[in-house]
Design goal:
Layout: E1 14-18, H1 22-33, E2 37-41, H2 47-65, E3 76-78, H3 82-86, E4 91-94, H4 100-113, E5 120-122, H5 129-132, E6 142-146, E7 156-161, H6 167-179, E8 183-186, H7 196-212, H8 218-233, H9 239-245, H10 250-258, H11 277-291, H12 296-316, H13 320-333, H14 340-344, E9 353-359, H15 373-390, H16 395-399, E10 402-413, E11 422-432, E12 436-445, E13 451-463, E14 468-469, H17 474-487
Parallel strand pairs: 1-2, 1-4, 2-3, 4-5, 5-6, 7-8
Antiparallel strand pairs: 6-7, 9-11, 10-13, 11-12, 12-13, 13-14
Helix pairs in contact: 1-2, 9-10, 10-11, 12-13
Length: about 500
């Protein structure tokens, strides 16, 4: 499908929706938030309320989805007939119940009410466009535009034409969908269920057998997906996953090693194509094209970075594998670092504590080619977390709702960091009282003394249960005192107490 430059893309001013349920409401939300006027026809008695609720959910999601400025929201109107809804529309999206006779009747009615060159897309999840177009006028402008719920967040839309569908109509629909942030995939051959639902149906059938045979519960089967392969599927799909599993020899080696397992009675879906040399060659060639010359090692690094990002996102919602990550982190935070007891007892720590030692990953690099500002703050945050473990803010202490919160930071950038460089963060304790600690952090390249960035911070002890600042516990204060006494002999950095001024 031909790509259109973003600067050259012209979105329609008005799109008509026939059907305003869960899918139609999702279409309305995505279109409206992309600045397109939407006219809706749905005879359901509660259709308007339900659709407006979906749009409200989408607004809340888009506020967190992108930092890019959204266009002024499109205008939403409700019509009392199909003719009124589609009048003047440049594109029509039908999202009505999955009954062939109903869709044939509605699509024929739509085709009589709009100009003959207006594309008409059906959201059907499995019906063939050739069958749906039988009663239409100008059936060459009908295609399937099959989305996934929620339409305003999931970008996939499957495009499928019938025997009479014009290729230019599929191009126009693809341009519209891309323009509103979607990823169109064109189905090469008209088949029932298209692509994604056929894959989902195979998984669904096998899941039903596993429940039927008391092999697993529905919860266990969902966990098997969301804690395992589902994480990789989010960005790799099936074939790229298997290419990496084949190691340096790639897809060909994987098929040779695991292909014979298709003959084993692992699943109820035993009707599979024979892995002939011709099929193997086809898969290998397409897999090579998909990898675009990247080595398995490069693909593995990309996979790992993508998984880390995905797990971090899930952790922020305490959901699925992200909840598992958060639980593991809480256990790590409850483990006091070795040597803490002797340090608290008064052993002198004569230099700033080196609390972080790590490599700058490629994902931390911004469009200027160096580490982005937020990652400096992330490194300083890691140092604070490590310091809290040093002073005993772990386990039961955290569970009680007590910890130190950052209330002030002064960050200085003195140099640039690049992907692959190893850095350390050292922390000096400047002062404390029963509620506050005053810290100075320095980031430097591994083995070097000259700082690349510094941060002066004030941490405030807070009792979250009470909702206010509070004195730290006696044991924590004792460790803070010991560390501050040890650092009292260190030179106070020149940057401490500096402020931003223009002379």
């Amino acid at each position: 499908m031909t790509e259109v430059a973003a600067s050259e893309l012209r979105l329609p001013q008005t799109v008509a929706l026939v059907g305003g349920g869960v899918i139609g409401g999702g279409w309305a939300a995505r279109l409206l938030l992309n600045g397109i006027d939407v006219s809706v026809y749905d005879p359901g008695p509660d259709a308007e309320r339900r659709l407006l609720e979906v749009v409200d959910h989408a607004r809340a999601a888009f506020d967190r989805l992108t930092f890019a400025p959204l266009p002024p929201e499109g205008r939403l109107s409700f019509a009392d007939s199909i003719e009124a809804a589609v009048s003047g529309a440049e594109f029509v999206q039908e999202s009505t119940p999955e009954r062939l006779e109903l869709k044939q009747e509605l699509l024929a009615q739509i085709s009589r009410s709009v100009a003959p060159d207006v594309p008409i897309a059906s959201s059907t999840s499995g019906l063939r466009p050739t069958d749906m177009a039988k009663a239409m006028g100008n059936p060459e402008r009908l295609l399937v535009g099959h989305p996934f719920n929620p339409v305003y967040l999931i970008p996939l839309v499957e495009l499928c034409g019938g025997t009479l569908t014009s290729s230019s109509v599929i191009e126009r629909a693809g341009s519209l969908y891309r323009g509103i942030g979607m990823h169109p995939v064109t189905v090469r051959t008209e088949v029932d269920g298209f692509l994604a639902d056929r894959l989902l149906e195979a998984l669904w059938r096998e899941a039903l057998w596993l429940v039927n045979d008391d092999v697993a519960t529905v919860s266990e089967l969902d966990d098997a997906i969301r804690y395992g392969a589902g994480l990789r599927w989010a960005f790799m799909g099936t074939f790229l996953t298997y290419r990496i599993a084949g190691g340096e020899q790639g897809m060909h080696h994987f098929l040779e090693q695991f292909g014979p397992a298709l003959a084993l009675p692992w699943t109820k879906l035993s009707d599979v194509p024979e892995l002939t040399p011709e099929l193997i060659d086809k898969i290998v060639a397409q897999s090579d094209a998909q990898a675009a010359g990247q080595s398995v090692s490069a693909l593995e690094q990309w996979r790992d970075e993508s998984l880390v990002s995905l797990l971090h996102g899930l952790r922020s919602q305490d959901s699925g594998a992200g909840a598992t990550l958060a639980q593991w982190e809480r256990r790590l935070m409850s483990i006091a670092p070795s040597g803490m007891a002797s340090d608290a007892a008064g052993e002198q720590i004569a230099a700033p504590l080196v609390l972080v030692d790590r490599e700058v990953p490629p994902s931390w690099i911004d469009y200027n080619g160096h580490m982005t500002e937020s990652r400096y703050l992330e490194l300083f945050s890691e140092a604070v977390d490590a310091l809290l473990r040093w002073i005993g803010v772990t386990g039961d202490y955290l569970e009680s709702g007590r910890s130190y919160f950052t209330v002030e930071t002064h960050l200085r950038h003195l140099g640039q960091l690049f992907a692959g460089e190893r850095v350390t963060v050292s922390t000096q304790m400047l002062a404390y009282d029963e509620k506050r600690i005053h810290l100075f952090h320095s980031i430097a390249r591994h083995g070097e003394q000259e700082p690349v960035a510094t941060a002066e911070q004030m941490q405030l002890h807070v009792d979250s249960t009470a909702g206010r600042a509070s004195p730290a516990g006696a044991e924590v204060l004792a460790r803070v005192r010991a560390l501050c006494d040890a650092h009292a002999t260190l030179t106070v950095p020149d940057a401490v107490g500096r402020r931003i001024v223009i002379p």
